[in-house]
Amino acid sequence: MTLQQQRCEACRADAPRITEDEARELRPQIPDWKQVEEDGEEKLQRQFKFANFAEALAFTNRVGDLAEDEGHHPALLTEYGKVTVTWWTHKIGGLHRNDFICAAKTDALFEER
Ligand SMILES: C[C@H](O)[C@H](O)[C@H]1CNC2=NC(N)=NC(=O)C2=N1
Predict the structure, then answer these.
(1) Residue 71 in domain
(2) Greatest C-alpha distance within the chain
(3) How many domains does the chain have?
(4) 73 located within any domain
(5) pLDDT higher than 90, residue 23
(6) 77 has which bridge partners?
């Protein structure tokens, strides 16, 4: 199954961080995302461009709905014509498979907008 077809699992504090090998295998499915380190935590981040603020806000709310459906939540920065989405797993202070699934699902929302 592709990442977009998978569902997030309930993340637990003792959940395993994604391994470098797994990440390397999954990255081609989310080519527009970059892996960043912030406050010592690995995160996935992508900036989406829009025509104006209203479209950026509409997309923001759809990502919010996705987050609620999956029980997994991003950081969202909404600006005029831009939305920066950052996924990581707070409980483990780093990246879990869930974050790759949610990044792929976020791309699907952008593509079907
Ligand atoms: C109780 C609730 O399910 C947990 O706090 C969830 C909520 N959403 C979450 N989102 C993210 N990104 N990481 C988490 O660890 C997390 N935990």
Answers:
(1) yes
(2) 42
(3) 1
(4) yes
(5) yes
(6) 84
109 vs 103: CA distance, rounded Å: 10
In a domain, 87, yes or no: yes
* CA-closest residue to ligand 1 atom 2: 71
Residue 7 lies in a domain: no
Note the pLDDT tens digit of each residue in 60-92. Answer: 999 999 999 999 999 999 999 999 999 999 999
Percent of residues, the chain, with pLDDT higher than 70: 100
Q: From the CB of 27, is ligand 1 less than 6 Å away?
A: no
ipTM score for this prediction: 0.97
- Residue 61 belongs to domain with CATH number: 3.30.1360.20
Strand order in the sheet with 41-49: 34-38, 41-49, 82-87, 75-79
Q: For residue 106, what are the domain limits?
A: 36-113
Structure tokens that stand for 22 in this block: 């797994």
Is the Cβ atom of 72 under 6 angstroms away from ligand 1? yes
Give, for ligand 1, the residue of 72, 101, 106 to mutate: max count of ligand atoms closer than 8 Å to Cβ. 72
Is it the case that residue 113 has pLDDT exceeding 90? no
